UniProtKB/TrEMBL annotation:
Keywords: Chaperone, Cytoplasm, Ribosome biogenesis, rRNA processing. It comes from Ulvibacterium marinum. The PRC barrel domain binds ribosomal protein uS19. InterPro entries: PRC_barrel-like_sf, PRC_RimM, RimM, RimM_N, RimM_N_sf, Transl_B-barrel_sf. Its main location: cytoplasm. This is Ribosome maturation factor RimM. An accessory protein needed during the final step in the assembly of 30S ribosomal subunit, possibly for assembly of the head region. Essential for efficient processing of 16S rRNA. May be needed both before and after RbfA during the maturation of 16S rRNA. It has affinity for free ribosomal 30S subunits but not for 70S ribosomes. Belongs to the RimM family. Gene3D superfamilies: PRC-barrel domain, RimM. It is found in: Cytoplasm.
Length: 175
C-alpha cells in the first residue's frame, strides 16, 4: 500500500501497558468510528506495514487504545512509539454538501462570484492559522482563504468549487 492511497489517522504517542498496548492520538472529529478496526498500516522507516489488531477501544475520548497482534511487550511497543498510522482512502466516510476532504478537491475548478473562473486547485495549505486553497491560473498562484463565508458551494459532479472572494483578493494575484 502506498501513502498516496491512504489517509493519516493518527500517531502512536505512548505505551499503555507492559503487555504492549499503545495509545494513539487520532486526527479526526469522530474517533468513535475507528473503535472496531481489524487492521491498520503503520509507517515504519517510510514504508506502510500492515498490523492486525486484537482489540481497540477509545481511551479518554481523544485517544485510541490499541492491542496489536504482534506487539505483546514493552520492547515491541517501543519500536512503534511515534509511528504514524494510516488507513486506505476507501475507508474515509463520505462527505456531502459543502464538506470535503482536502485531497478530494485537488484538480477542481474555482469559480468566483465576481471574476468567474479563477483557476484550478493545486493544493490545500493547512499549516497556517487560516487554511488556504492553492489555486493556479496561467502560471500564477492564488491563495484563497477557506471559510464558510467564502466557500459558497461544492459541486462534486462538475468538480467545481464556487467562492465569493473578498474585494481585491483576486486582483492582487492576477493583475
Amino acid at each position: 500500500m502506498r501513502k498516496e492511497d491512504c489517509f493519516y489517522l493518527g500517531k502512536v504517542v505512548s505505551k499503555y501497558s507492559y503487555k504492549g498496548e499503545v495509545l494513539v492520538k487520532l486526527d479526526t472529529d469522530e474517533p468513535e468510528i475507528y473503535e472496531n478496526m481489524e487492521s491498520i498500516f503503520v509507517s515504519i522507516r517510510g514504508n506502510l506495514v500492515p498490523f492486525f489488531i486484537d482489540k481497540c477501544r477509545l481511551h479518554k475520548s481523544a485517544l485510541l487504545r490499541i492491542d496489536f497482534e504482534d506487539v505483546k511487550d514493552e520492547e515491541a511497543a517501543d519500536r512503534i512509539l511515534g509511528a504514524e498510522l494510516y488507513l486506505p482512502l476507501s475507508l474515509l466516510p463520505k462527505l456531502e454538501g459543502n464538506k470535503f476532504y482536502y485531497h478530494e478537491i485537488i484538480g477542481f475548478t474555482i469559480k468566483d462570484s465576481t471574476h468567474g473562473d479563477i483557476g484550478v486547485v493545486t493544493g490545500v495549505n493547512d499549516t497556517t492559522s487560516q487554511v488556504l486553497i492553492e489555486v493556479e491560473k496561467n502560471g500564477k498562484e492564488l491563495l484563497v482563504p477557506l471559510t464558510d463565508e467564502i466557500l459558497t458551494k461544492v459541486d462534486r459532479k462538475n468538480r467545481t468549487l464556487f467562492v465569493s472572494t473578498p474585494e481585491g483578493l483576486v486582483d492582487l494575484y492576477l493583475n
